[in-house]
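Help needed: design a sequence for this.
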């Protein structure tokens, strides 16, 4: 599905946040937010995994918002080690809700998943959660806690490469086993943390899960 793209700024809690909206269709059933990986290691809204996640969600006609966390790209403020970034996610969800008045889907990659899942798991406006490259192993001396998902009844999809440097299959299986149902873990054969050479499989996995969950078909 082709869609127009709107470039603009959100008024964030620490200043303006650079944002891109891939517009959806007039009959969209949901709107979606996709959050990018760690900004201190090159993560931006233009990341390839983020882009492909956006394309997977936009294929169903959903409007999809991407934005740069504070201090990233043209966004104002400075990096806050995942603390203030929670407020950035809340602001983006607020904007989507106000703009479209549709149920929301959250998807995040790596740092974006760690921060965004925490910000959105208890948000009544969010219907489903997607974590890509979930960093369950220690990442540059940072450890992320996902215990809040143990009591989260929302549908959850986790997609990682079998050679993900920040989450081995065993580590991911152990983590996801503790999360509340419903949930699905997909491990991409040959994929690393960035799904290098395997982005189509990641994208297809997201599309297939959304199609089953909401009984929708991709738009032509």
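Sure. Designed sequence:
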């Amino acid at each position: 599905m082709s869609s127009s793209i709107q470039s603009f700024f959100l008024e964030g809690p620490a200043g303006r946040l650079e944002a891109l909206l891939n517009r959806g269709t007039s009959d969209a059933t949901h709107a979606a937010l996709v959050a990018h990986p760690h900004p201190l290691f090159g993560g931006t809204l233009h990341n390839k995994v983020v882009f492909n996640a956006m394309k997977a969600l936009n294929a169903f006609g959903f409007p999809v918002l991407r934005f740069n966390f504070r201090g990233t790209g043209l966004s104002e403020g400075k990096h806050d080690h995942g603390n203030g970034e929670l407020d950035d996610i809340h602001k983006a969800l607020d904007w989507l809700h106000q703009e479209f008045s549709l149920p929301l889907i959250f998807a995040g990659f790596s740092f974006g998943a760690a921060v965004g899942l925490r910000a959105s798991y208890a948000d009544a406006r969010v219907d489903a959660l997607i974590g890509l490259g979930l960093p369950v192993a220690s990442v540059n001396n940072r450890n992320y806690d996902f215990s809040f998902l143990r009591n989260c009844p929302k549908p959850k999809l986790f997609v990682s490469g079998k050679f993900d440097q920040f989450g081995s299959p065993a580590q991911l299986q152990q983590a996801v086993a503790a999360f509340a149902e419903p949930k699905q873990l997909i491990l991409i054969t040959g994929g690393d943390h960035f799904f290098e050479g395997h982005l189509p499989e990641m994208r297809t996995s997201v599309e297939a899960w959304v199609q089953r969950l909401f009984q929708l078909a991709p738009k032509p």
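The first strand starts at residue 5 and ends at 12.
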